[in-house]
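quick one, 351 residues, struct below
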Amino acid sequence: MTRPAFAVRTPAPREVWQQLVEADDDVLVTQTPRWLECICATGGYEDASRLYEFDSQRTVLVPLARRRGWPARLIGEDAWPSEWGIGGPLADGEPTLAQARAVFEDLSRLPANRISVRFGPRAAPVWAAAVPGAFQPARNMTYILDLKGGFDTVWQERFKSATRTAVRKGEKAGLEVEVDRTGRLVPTFYELYQLSVTRWAAQQHEPAALARWRRRRIDPLCKFQAVAEVFGDNCAVWLASHGGQPAAAMIVLQHGHHAKYWRAGMDKPLASPARASTLLHRYAIEDACAAGCRCYHLGDSPGGSSVSTFKERLGARGYPSFAYRRERFPMTTVDQRLRGVVKRVIGFQDA
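---
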């Protein structure tokens, strides 16, 4: 197979990136330059995106972020860093197998210790066919609710009966639901999120202080504030209260025809009996349908888990999606093994 000629620009020009976003209805909010702006604003990262311009006029853009101020051989260039979601390549049309291979080969030669690219469940098959042996695959299960037909169709045909029952129970419980698109409710959401972190720690036999410290490093308050500020009206914080007291909250992002459920938190003694989380999803899904969205993304979770069961009751289906990683020194593997040792010592159990 003849290797196609191409030129690379890095970081990728924002105007070209935005043009690719606007030309593709399937681009996710996490593939936009605004998402990278949030990563760089709150995570100590810088733009390492690469624009490939082939002689055939095909253009491919790979979003990448890397740690600022570190030698390349000690860090990763990722699309995206952990906990930031899907950042697969964008292109002005499906690349050929030769072009996709050329992109992977170029990425494999970068000096960074780790290169990783996360693809969505609807990525063009050519990418999976082009992955060289140096990249190791990791399989995920990503849940998506089809909004085709509008909310009435979703309610009647896709929501399971248990979900409809839970929604009615939430409505009868007297929950007050509000939505904020200004960032005003982000601190309230974060307080509920911290309560969830503490609850998860108890379920996993993890010391609460360790869990809160670990999660604050991954999801600091400023991260949610930055996303709310950057995305404006496209970042909705949904809040359910009972008797004026916050019970559950979640963040939903919109871009084009896609809505993305991002994070949630709850005060379980208040939220669970009233099915507050299910009620919030009901309103967010109706809102997404009214905005013309075709899909409601519910993120990754292991098949057969209680979280996946909840998503399936909302009518979502699980789709395989893949990440690919090339690492010169296996720092990720070492890190995972060390975490495994710590988990065994403290009796950690995955919830």
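The two ends are 47 Å apart (CA to CA).
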